């Protein structure tokens, strides 16, 4: 099971992830992004206040630094609405294979939630999976 207080079978998450990345005509970067975002789900379920707080802080910092510009501002506003909608909506976007969700994930506010060693491990596993699938 994923999380401690919200029970979603891990199989449901991995099946959704596999179904949306295998055989899809998605760009490799979009597939990797989905893997990385799916890895956020256990942390989000375990401690939603910390993860959502980090995302909100990243959005605020992006605005303050000017990193969120006229082109990315609509996505930042959409992420704020998604964060306001709660954990269920966030998970839906993290696993959504649509083009719009792919674009949203490219403007992710979740930078820094996963430790770098975990990011490296996910990237390595993704590369190995791609080799096996080829």
Structure description:
This protein is mostly helical and 134 residues long. It has one domain (10-133). The chain is globular, with a radius of gyration of 15 Å. The model is unreliable at 21-25 (pLDDT under 50). The chain has helices at 10-21, 28-38, 40-46, 48-65, 73-85, 87-95, 99-106, 116-133.
Question: Quick recap of the structure?
Answer:
Helix content is 72%, strand content 0%.
List the helices and strands and how they pair.
Elements: H1 10-21, H2 28-38, H3 40-46, H4 48-65, H5 73-85, H6 87-95, H7 99-106, H8 116-133
Helix pairs in contact: 1-2, 3-4
- The percentage helix is over 70%
Principal-axes geometry comes out as: globular
- Which structural class is indicated by helix and strand composition? mainly alpha
Strand content: under 5%
Instruction: Report the major sheet.
Output: none
Mean pLDDT: 87
Weakly predicted, low-confidence segments? 21-25
The whole-angstrom Rg is 15 Å
Task: Give the termini distance in whole angstroms.
Answer: 31 Å
Q: Give the number of domains.
A: 1
What is the β-strand count? 0
Query: SSE string, helix = H, strand = E?
Result: HHHHHHHH
Number of helices: 8
Notable characteristics:
single chain, 134 residues, mainly alpha, 8 helices, 72% helix
